[in-house]
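Researcher: I'd like a structural prediction for the single chain below. Treat it as a standalone chain; there are no partners to consider.
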Amino acid sequence: MEVRRRQGVKMYKKGFNQYEVAEALGVSQASVSRWVDWEEEGGEDGLASKPRPGPTPKLNQDHKEELAELLLKGPSEFGFEGELWTSPMVTELIRMGFGVKYHPGNVRKVLRQMGFSPQKPVKRAVQRDEEAIAKWCREEWPRIKKKPKGGARQ
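Model: Treating it as a single chain, here is the predicted structure.
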């Protein structure tokens, strides 16, 4: 956009009217008029790209660093069940610790910006006993497995 603005102002200064500049660059005449005004007020710098400010973050950098330390302690440290954080848990932690309200979907974005990534829980129970399962499969399952009756087709 900045290149287009600079090009439009140069064309205008060479004698092209706003309509001709707008047609050549595929913009409105109002845009060309605005660019000329910006250049007159601020010179070349007036045409420079400016970052869009966006909303002020609810958590500053210090808060995010403190939040990272809290998250590394684990959810059970703060009275939550389980060993993995969920977005609603983190939302509540932020509310309790910093007095800031976030939607759980926005908390995911904040965590991603902080370098955290989604984690999936292990599918198997911690107390799972592989030996007992193998023994059951060898001894009990064949015993209770349905056997076809004499007249049944196989």
